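User: Can you model how adenosine-5'-diphosphate sits in this protein?
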Amino acid sequence: MFQKILIANRGEIALRVLRACKELGIQTVVVHSTADADAMHVRLADESVCIGPPPSRDSYLNIHQIVAACEITGADAVHPGYGFLSENAKFADILAAHNITFIGPSGDHIRIMGDKIEAKRTAKRLGIPVVPGSDGAVTDQKEARRIAAEIGYPVIIKASAGGGGRGMKVALTEADLEIGLQTASTEAGAAFGDDAVYIEKYLEKPRHIEVQVFGDGAGRGVHFGERDCSLQRRHQKVWEEAPSPALNAEERARIGNICAKAIADLGYSGAGTIEFLYENGEFYFIEMNTRLQVEHPVTEAITGIDLVHEQIRVASGGGLSVRQEDIKFNGHAIECRINAEDPRTFTPSPGTITHFHTPGGLGIRVDSGVYSGYKIPPYYDSLIGKLIVHGRNRVECMMRLRRALDEFVVDGIKTTLPLFRDLVGNADIANGDYDIHWLEKYLAKEE
Ligand code: ADP
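Assistant: Here's the modeled complex, given as structure tokens:
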């Protein structure tokens, strides 16, 4: 087991990882920018190292400084959290070259899944169902027209190097396709330095369903069920739940087993999430994230398993603590992402939190790095906390969520809490009847 882990992140996830390390009796080092000197993760860690000024590229993304911090403090492993360097293959390789363990998969696996064309090809080879479309990059119009005619309109043109929902164009007709191909490719070149684009069938009313997987790096793979993250705004997840209200036990087992087997065959190590669009009973792979996800706590709530403990165990060579048959699903969980943003316009609302009171009681978990008197710096993501609620079934979970939202107080800044108070009373949400476009339509109606 590791003696000392350096946490290369900030905010709620830095605290989340710190808690797991403390429970396992592992010493902790955190790094922080000058803007985060007062952050909770800095206060609670055994050691901290200031690695630079506020902008992320000079601090949380500064590989050189983070490796130096490991060497100064004698950390033998790094947990990258999510975002920042968590899916940076070069970072994983550099740590390996310095004999520091990256708590995550190999650089090669990160690289494969970071390239969307390569990821889709790999998924297909491993027996994961993918969206019908081109086999690889599409360069000429004639080929594009042939593929689109074959799969049928509408189609979507996506950048191979894309991310965060950028670089995508929907084409309803052949005329759209011609323009779309050109603009998508030019935009991708400018944004990502790689103009490769590919085509796939555009699904009109899908849900976003993702499977949590784990590999031990030695040929064993398990799945921890799925999460439904269909409630999104601008491709950003807002509300996540497990299990999905749309799946039955047979579908859950079918897609879960396909994913677990794929992870085993790939020889993958650590936590991963295989993301699908789901429509009319079919799953279509869109991408794989090679890290812990923001929404991992809903899976922890229904399985009772600490996924960060599991990541640390696997990275230290201790293997998975569970076999597939040990993973049991219990009840229902929902997570609300609380952002420091206006609940209608979503403009960021940094500033000082004058009062912060979190809900409590059975089935309630709050993961947050903020406190009363904390000043939110304007440089980073606006997520200030996550409310995770668990109940024996979805109805109980929703009742408890409504009560918890009523108790939650964040004064001094605007937050997305009022949005969740509206959503929890909505009939479609109560029925679990929503797709990936539902939230944007709802917000447009409210304006
Ligand atoms: P990114 O890496 O940029 O987030 P994804 O491939 O994960 O890109 O897609 C992001 C979102 O775009 C999906 O959650 C979905 O809302 C939409 N999307 C992607 N592919 C399709 C498709 N084939 N049909 C319909 N919507 C799609």
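A couple of observations from the model: The longest strand covers residues 221-233. The two ends are 53 Å apart (CA to CA).
User: Helpful, thanks.
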